[in-house]
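Run PatA-like N-terminal domain-containing protein through structure prediction, thanks.
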Amino acid sequence: MESFKGSLASYRLQLVTPPLFSTPGVEGTLRVERGATQRCFLVKDGFLVSESSNDPREHLAQVLVNLRILDAPRAAAAFEAAEGANMPYGTFLVQRCFVELPRLIEAMEHKAREALFDCYGWESGEVEFTPKLPPASRAVGLKLSLSTLHRDAVTRLREWSVFREVFPHLDATFRVFREFAVETYSEEEDKLLELAASGATLGEMLATAKEAPLFAARWILHLYRRGALAPRVPKGPRLGEAAELADLLNLVKGFLEKGKYDHAVALAAQVLERGPVPEAHALYREAEVRLTLALSDELFALDGRLVFEPIPRPTPPQLTADDLYLYSKLRGSRSIRQALRTAAMGELAASRSVHRLMASGLIRVAPLPDAESPAESRRTSTDPFGLPALKLGM
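Sure, done. The structure for PatA-like N-terminal domain-containing protein is below.
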């Protein structure tokens, strides 16, 4: 490919990225800029091999903290030491045993994916492609399939479309119904409820996301569907839709009676895209609770028995970015319950994701302690390339 430069108003990444993985032998730098934020993505032979950003919120140290791989003081101290040693931060972390290589790569891949996904939503700014790659550095590299990234990015654009259909105005404020804020709600959801109760706008609530804004959007949509949040000026069903809504609600009830909780959750969510309907909120809550219990009870019983296999490079195409995000969350959480309830995708989607990770072989279940050999109990992780993991220590 030759050099290319244009406006994101005319050339969105959804159009620019496919030639980078469908054309053989392409390598170079994709630069995306909007306002003061600039991101660079190095691509080679259909893979994303490096990513950088000038946004402080996307610094690798912050990502490691967000994923609970390092605590904030330790991440900051390592960064200062790496600067003093004139070494790439990631390389320093591995060489000085702050972080195991597999965990570092997980964080770097998560950082790169979220940066690219965010750029897919940009409708203004500049995009530029420059052939050829800069000289290789000592930094730890990536190998993410661009075609898989493109697939997940388009899926997220559809997610945003649903969210904006429900909440078309960023200056919207909410009423809070604490009676639906049950104890199982996560810390992130509680913070959003507090912000809403204080009069924060939708835009302000989205801006509080520690990681991607979509993660906060998912929490907000989940709270809305359960009936804990309601827009002060709601978008209601259009004239003539009342009879159709009644039929849909009867279908939801039928699915519940037949134990088809997955269908009931999906259909109740579709009803709520048209506007807040009290009966739909109640049916959604009931279906979600029943489905979550069915999916997660067996998982909670596996605490302490999950064995994390190395992630192949490149990543298996059947796994999504959310699956890989949850993989990292599980490894950094005290328990399966904590990981599922704090996952940005919601507990229900997280339970499904764990089952996909198990089916793909990235997570397996160790035998019960009385049948477990000492060697088996010690093996919890390996290097992505099959070598033993680094031992932690200073």
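DSSP finds 17 helices and ten strands in the chain.
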